[in-house]
Amino acid sequence: MQPVISIQQLNKTYASGHPALQSIDLDIRKGEIFALLGPNGAGKTTLISIICGIVNPGSGRVLVDGHDIIKDYRAARAQIGLVPQELVSDVFETVWATVKFSRGLFGKKADPAYLERLLRDLSLWDKRDAKIMELSGGMKRRVMIAKALSHEPQILFLDEPTAGVDVELRRDMWNMVRGLRARGVTIILTTHYIEEAEEMADRIGVISKGRIILVEDKQALMHKLGKKQLTLQLQQPLASLPAELNGHRLELADEGHALVFTFDAQREHTGIAELLKDLAQHGIDFKDLQSSQSSLEEIFVNLVREARA
């Protein structure tokens, strides 16, 4: 299947000499939710801005649904809706006028029924005659989403869409994203809320210092890089780890009241049986045990740390 977005050897260096993007190669599949993660200044917004035609690339090629973003700008841009980080709108216009105008910018025929459904889905219908300046921050964010979807794009970019918004809006937004994906819309999001990427994304891309350091299916990433840990709550605390247990990947925790054993759950021999046997031999009793797996946030932090090293 041809990717809906294809990026080849994309580079961008700003006038200051800062290399914002370096040799980016990335394909995004039609109908997926792709999460782009990276620390501040990693190049996330620059990459999105180039694809959306806001920033000029330095070199390289970007195709959107087969259309070159430079040679066939109008056709490429018509496929894209963008919800930027900043709330930018005409504060003196009404919600309805703003969304209607955005649709017209792309040469779409008037469709009041579609715009009504859109505003209802975003809980904006009752505010359709209110001026933007009269709305709360959360409602303004909803208007930005409505503007981005007004021309029925097949690709939606969400650049830090839930930064600073309330829990209710965040929940509504992700319900809407799931509905869009079900209708075949491709979603690309950047977020600082890694738990959202963990819950929503089909694939994860990690960018650091302007370079893509990893692209992986979310489940495969969790499977490949995630660690499992077994935590044993001890009957009696230990002042230090006995030398006899040095052969195990053990750490003391909770001021000596717990032992944490790290293992690979995919290996045939995890080492758990041997650990429990050695604990019994040395008279170390435990009263409870529980297992846990690395979160996407832990994996992300480790990847970025390695890339910076």
Detailed description of the structure:
This protein has 2 domains: 5-223, Rossmann fold (3-Layer(aba) Sandwich); 227-293, 2-Layer Sandwich (Alpha-Beta Plaits). The protein contains 10 helices and 14 strands. It has helices spanning 44-51, 73-78, 95-105, 112-121, 137-149, 167-182, 194-200, 218-225, 272-281, 296-308, and strands at residues 5-13, 19-28, 33-37, 59-64, 67-68, 80-83, 155-159, 186-190, 203-208, 211-217, 228-234, 250-253, 258-263, 286-293. Strands 6-7-8-3-9-10 form a 6-stranded mixed beta sheet, sandwiched between helices. A 4-stranded antiparallel beta sheet has the order 2-1-4-5. Helix 3 packs parallel to helix 5. Residues 5-234 form the ABC transporter domain. It comes from Pseudomonas borbori. Keywords: ATP-binding, Nucleotide-binding, Transport. This is ABC-2 type transport system ATP-binding protein.
Concise synopsis of the structure shown:
The protein is α/β, with parallel strands linked by helices. The protein is built from ten helices and 14 strands.
